[in-house]
Design a protein that fits this description.
The chain is mostly helical. The protein is built from 44 helices and ten strands.
């Protein structure tokens, strides 16, 4: 075919029109002598253009023709152009599978397997495949025969003669026949072993469920028994040799390639367990040691090879254990762990291309179906199927899954499995990754019937189906729970109340009956409100179930909805702002504190839908709002009521941000920097309390003196308040200082200052719906026996004459918080020489501090408390770390400016930077302090009241664990980790605080 230079031939143009991507190379192939008799036949070109990859199909055809013997080539070509069935099958396979093209090039006569089909060939079963493998006598001949059978199977698939489910079933049947042939070869090579034992091969996974891929590990379990008169130990050794040989025959690579890996790791004890066990040994393991996932795997168990009676006995024996798994003690936490394990361990660079394990992938569908089978199959035998699609249909017919949801999942699953099949068929390699190469995507799209713009169409369809799976994966668990309490269309199946309760219990709800009542109250009726709730609740129920207390989450949601249900913006916020609904679910199911704060003013839920809503407000903004509210109020009590309302709202903002940051959401993973979480809470609560005190101070002054108090007055933060390290339940430790204004007597100024303090404390503790702010002034000079408020001069005189080492240590946390700023600065200047003494502490002072610490450890620990788990006073807890850091501040603060801070972590970092403590020791102390601080925050969030030790109630303890990042069932790990961290910290304290280190 020659053309004038610069012009394209008509053949080139036709090839381009028929879908060839490299028409020049295709034109050269058609010019080969081997294709001389058919190159101009339009039928061939049309058939090539109909394949997934015309270029690949043509190359494959040329290779077969050139590999064939002289007399056979023309027979092939003549048959190809005259027999449409062969043409479609052969070229269809060549255009979809490079690997099968390689097989035909090595065995060019195998094309004849595609020439004619008997009726049985259209739906072959195990018997037909066994016949196709009958001549195999060794691993190589078995591989060749297997590929020949696979060739006919793939031809029916790519031509559309069989659908996805039938193709997957045929692949499983071919695997069954192959396992039998491999076992026969193994027995023939070791007849003495075969004579000693009975051996059954039980298929698991996709092979067991008759839904196998083109290339997939074939999961199996081996069961063996001794033949009459044979010692059991010897019989098991013989059975193990046979099983191992059978696995090698299938798995090893020879000159003819490999078939697939035979994987026996689902057996009891996995890789560490014996390859073959007796039936009684299997049952003993399952009854005593097996985990829930092992029963999930046994859903698909099917005897496929070896001794049929023994295989049937095994399946019959394990079946009651499978369908009773939902009654096991640890079923719920195991299920929750399995649900979260779906996308674990996928490399970040692959997750977007993962067809099987990624979000919206095949595993989502398979897992959801299997879990529902386990939950409801114990009372409904119609669900006892190993096939995902058959089980999904049965779930829909039984009302366990909505029919529309099941139909969408079925369609999505078939499409995703078809993608998987075509990806694997190309090179017959085990992969679940969608290719990135444009040519691969084009071939994949065309193989699925997309011809206009195959790459774009494929990506669009894939994303659409993955999105459906992602959306329905959780929904199918919970939507039928609503249908169980809702009015359904006539003839529509529904989940019975009993089945709904079973499902709720399996998902972690402790009181399923109450949960169903809440669902009915929220979703019944024909109002727009009920319709929106029916849309929201399936997703919310899943988020609640992901917490330690789903019941509390659902109850809280009902209370908030009852309070705000008639407010137009509430349900619209949850429906339209995706983050708001999930954030609310996390907050409501995270413990008692946040829901209690929210229920006192449910409109604060709007914070959860604002992108900036969870960011703590600065002290400046808070004081501006608080002081403006005080200015508008008619009296002090009204003013402080508004101020306390602001505090409650901001506490809710802080708790919500803390819970959401600790739990994470679908779009935002949990915060990994736990120190940052603690610092944010400490700073936010400190700023909030400072602004609240500033508001109460302004209200108290205005009520009696107007705008000006007869004395300048300041509030100095002490303890955790001054250190910006408040937890949710902390009191505000303070000192009150005043300085009489010019012309005001000391007596009058003192009376005014004491009156203001008394009024502030009264206003902040008035009984209202808002949480009180307790002010503690016990760190003042002379403690509880000393005056509540002093002048700056009085503080100076006391500290010069009477101050003790512990008082200087307490002043390390002193910071101005409210009131007169100049007076606050003067107080700080007054105490700086005390807390950072020139040349550091003397030996007597150091001994005194150590003695006080030791006394505190022995006297202040609550009776009966476990010192290894007490976050504040226990071994390696907050007190240990803080006293160690404070000793370094008092010894070296005069020389190291970085140590002059009220914050523990900042001071510790400065000490490390100044090489006063090794980096490793500093990190140990920091980690222990952060962990202990988080424990205190968690206890308050979960219980709604402060505490320094882990809760004893199992559900509360589990909730603390979830907050700290531990999965259900791992509270023991949490306690062990806490003890380990604080034990290491205590060792540092012993050296740095009590030891010789200075």
């Amino acid at each position: 075919m020659t053309t004038a230079p610069g012009r394209r031939s008509s053949t080139f143009t036709r090839l381009l029109r028929h879908g060839f991507t490299d028409p020049s190379a295709a034109e050269q192939l058609l010019d080969l002598d081997a294709l001389a008799s058919v190159r101009s036949d339009p039928v061939l070109l049309e058939a090539l253009g109909a394949t997934a990859d015309p270029d690949l199909a043509l190359r494959g055809l040329v290779r077969i023709v050139e590999a064939g013997e002289e007399g056979e080539r023309q027979v092939l070509l003549d048959t190809l152009v005259t027999a449409k069935p062969l043409r479609d099958r052969l070229l269809g396979v060549l255009g979809a599978s490079e690997a099968l093209g390689d097989h035909l090039a090595r065995h060019p006569r195998d094309w004849q397997a595609l020439v004619t089909y008997e009726s049985a060939d259209l739906n072959p079963g195990v018997a037909e495949f066994e016949q196709g493998l009958a001549d195999a006598v060794d691993p190589d001949s078995l591989r060749v025969a297997y590929r020949r059978c696979l060739l006919t199977l793939a031809a029916r698939d790519v031509c559309g003669t069989t659908g996805l489910a039938q193709t997957a079933a045929e692949l499983a049947d071919l695997a069954t026949a192959t396992l039998r042939a491999a076992l026969a070869i193994a027995r023939t090579s070791a007849p003495e072993d075969a004579a000693q034992c009975r051996l059954a091969v039980v298929a698991m996974g996709k092979c067991g469920g008759r839904e196998l891929n083109y290339v997939s590990d074939v999961d199996v379990i081996f069961v063996g028994e001794a033949r009459d008169g044979v010692d059991e130990t010897k019989a098991m050794q013989a059975a193990t040799r046979l099983a191992a040989h059978m696995m090698r025959i299938c798995s090893e690579t020879t000159v003819e390639g490999t078939i697939w890996e035979v994987d026996a790791n689902l057996r009891p004890e996995g890789r560490n367990g014996p390859l073959v066990r007796t039936l009684s040994s299997h049952l003993a393991y399952y009854q005593r040691w097996a985990k829930t996932w092992e029963f999930q795997a046994l859903l698909k168990a099917r005897a496929v090879a070896g001794d049929p009676e023994l295989g049937a006995e095994y399946v019959e024996a394990v079946s009651p254990l499978v369908w009773g798994a939902a009654d096991r003690e640890n079923f719920v936490p195991d299920v929750q762990k399995m649900r979260r394990r779906v996308v674990d361990n996928i490399p970040a660079d692959r997750i977007e291309r993962e067809l099987k394990l990624g979000p919206g992938g095949l595993r989502d569908v398979e897992f959801a179906v299997q879990l529902l089978q386990l939950v409801h199959g114990r009372s409904d035998a119609s669900l006892h199927s190993g096939s995902t699609l058959e089980a999904l249909q049965a779930l829909a017919e039984g009302g366990y899954v909505g029919r529309a949801d099941a139909a969408q999942l079925d369609e999505a699953y078939r499409f995703l499995r078809s993608m998987e099949h075509r990806i694997q068929l190309y090179r017959l390699r085990r992969t679940h990754l969608v290719p990135e190469d444009e040519a691969d995507l084009r071939r994949l799209g065309r193989s699925l019937g997309m011809r206009t713009d195959p790459v774009a169409e494929l990506n669009k369809a894939w994303r659409r189906h993955a999105s459906v799976v992602r959306r329905l994966h959780e929904k199918i668990f919970y939507r039928p729970l609503l249908d169980a309490v809702a009015q359904l269309a006539p003839g529509e199946s529904r989940l019975s109340a009993k089945a709904a309760a079973i499902r709720l219990e399996a998902l972690g709800y402790a009181d399923p009956a109450a949960a169903l009542r809440h669902l009915e109250a929220l979703s019944s009726g024909v109002t727009r409100k009920a319709a929106i709730q029916r849309t929201l609740l399936p997703v919310l129920l899943g988020w609640f179930a992901d917490s330690a207390d789903p019941d509390a989450g659902l109850l809280g949601f009902r209370k908030v909805s009852d309070a705000l249900g008639k407010t137009p913006w509430y349900l619209r916020l949850l429906r339209d702002e995706g983050a708001a609904a999930e954030n609310l679910a996390r907050v409501l199911s995270g413990g008692r504190l946040a829901p209690d704060l929210l229920m006192r003013a449910p409109e604060a839920v709007a914070i959860l839908g604002d992108p900036e809503g969870l960011t703590p407000r600065s002290r400046g903004h808070l004081e501006q709002e608080v002081l403006a509210a005080v200015g508008r109020a008619g009296d002090a009590e009204s003013a402080v009521a508004v101020v306390r309302g602001v505090r409650r709202r901001e506490l809710f903002r802080t708790t919500a941000a803390d819970l959401i940051g600790s739990y994470g959401t679908e779009d935002s993973p949990a915060e990994q920097d736990h120190g940052a979480l603690v610092d944010r809470v400490g700073s936010a609560v400190t700023d909030l309390n400072a602004a609240t005190i500033a508001g109460a101070l302004r209200a108290a002054v205005r009520a009696q003196w107007g705008d000006t108090l007869p004395t300048r007055f300041a509030v100095i933060g002490m303890g955790r308040f001054g250190g910006h390290e408040l937890s949710y339940g902390s009191d505000a430790d303070v000192l009150f200082v005043h300085r009489p204004r010019e012309g005001v007597s000391d007596e009058e100024a003192g009376r005014a200052a004491n009156a203001v303090v008394g009024e502030m404390r009264r206003l902040l503790q008035l009984p209202t719906a808002d949480p009180p702010l307790l002010i503690d002034a016990d760190l003042r000079p002379e403690g509880k026996t000393g005056p509540m408020v002093r002048t700056l001069k009085s503080y100076g005189a006391y500290y010069r004459r009477w101050s003790l080492a512990w008082e200087s240590q307490a002043l390390l946390r002193a910071e101005h918080m409210a009131g007169d700023e100049e007076l606050g600065r003067d107080f700080i200047e007054l105490v700086d020489p005390l807390r950072y003494p020139m040349e550091g502490l003397g030996e007597d002072a150091v001994r005194e501090i150590r003695r006080l610490k030791a006394r505190m450890e022995s006297e202040r620990m609550p009776r009966g408390a476990d010192p290894t788990l007490h976050a504040k006073l226990g071994r390696g807890g907050l007190s240990d770390v803080e006293w160690t850091v404070q000793l370094m501040q008092m010894q070296h603060g005069w020389a190291e400016p970085g140590l002059r801070t009220t914050r523990t972590r900042e001071a510790l970092a400065a000490a490390c930077a100044a090489e006063l403590i090794p980096a490793e020791d500093a990190q140990t102390l920091d980690e222990a302090w952060v962990l202990a601080a988080r424990v205190r925050n968690a206890v308050m969030l979960v219980r709604g009241r402060p505490g320094d030790t882990f809760p004893s109630d199992p559900r509360e303890l589990a909730a603390v664990g979830r907050y700290l990042g531990y999965e259900p069932g791992h509270v023991g790990d949490m306690l062990d980790d806490y003890r380990r961290s604080t034990r290491r910290a205590r060792a540092v304290v012993e050296e740095r605080f009590y030891g010789a280190a200075t």
